[in-house]
Amino acid sequence: MKIAHSFEEVPELTHPVILTIGNFDGVHKGHQKILHVVRQKAGPTGSAVVLTFQNHPQHHFSQDEKIPLISSLEERIDLIEACDIDLVIALPFDETLANLTYDTFLHSLRAHLPFDQLVLGEGSTLGKNRGGNEETLTAYAGKHGFSVHFVEKLLIDNIVVSSGRIRSLLQDRKKKEAEALLGHHLQ
């Protein structure tokens, strides 16, 4: 697996290029479901790509109350690699990125990484003020020559698997239950 820390470092990739974007804190079973779809859509000869952030976006917006992370960037990259991903782009989430509208962000990203499909988790949003939602992203994709696919949330025992739920379990000292949602042991 290759790692890039800027758009300029993105190597030449084989098509189809299937991209997913997210923080992927913990790389839990819900994230693994998305990564599996990315790998499956890329097939054996295409490129499966993850764009993630070096820091949690929430830390940028709330300097006072920082949410505890489940995994470090290095741990996330290792867990993503275990899902047979070809490239991780790990960008710093900063003021410039926070102020980009979804369409400006995607236009800039596609100039460096001409992806064929974008795979996101159900309910995901991109861009300033969360302007890139399922409706706007689907319309934008149709006009710009790629497709977008939203993966349904993963439910275990009728509970949505999420990083927030796992953080809550860890705060309540329920490590075993948290690890069941993670699908791996905590580092």
Task: Please describe what this structure looks like.
The protein has 187 residues and is of the alpha/beta class. The protein has a single domain, classed as 3-Layer(aba) Sandwich (Rossmann fold). 37% of the residues lie in helices and 18% in strands. The strands form two sheets. The protein has a six-stranded parallel beta sheet with strand order 1-4-3-2-5-6, sandwiched between helices. A two-stranded antiparallel ribbon has the order 7-8. The radius of gyration is 16 Å and the shape is globular. The model has no long low-confidence stretch (mean pLDDT 93).
Which tags fit this structure?
18% strand, alpha/beta, 187 residues, Rossmann fold, two-stranded antiparallel ribbon
Give the gist of this structure.
This protein is of the alpha/beta class. The protein has helices at residues 29-42, 57-61, 73-81, 95-98, 102-112, 134-143, 163-171, 175-182; strands spanning 2-4, 17-21, 47-53, 87-91, 117-121, 147-151, 155-156, 159-160.
How many structural units, i.e. domains? 1
Largest sheet: 6 strands, parallel
Mean pLDDT: 93
CATH architectural name: 3-Layer(aba) Sandwich
- The strand order across the widest sheet is 1-4-3-2-5-6
Shape assignment: globular
Structural class: alpha/beta
Strand and helix map with partners:
Layout: E1 2-4, E2 17-21, H1 29-42, E3 47-53, H2 57-61, H3 73-81, E4 87-91, H4 95-98, H5 102-112, E5 117-121, H6 134-143, E6 147-151, E7 155-156, E8 159-160, H7 163-171, H8 175-182
Parallel strand pairs: 1-4, 2-3, 2-5, 3-4, 5-6
Antiparallel strand pairs: 7-8
Helix pairs in contact: 7-8
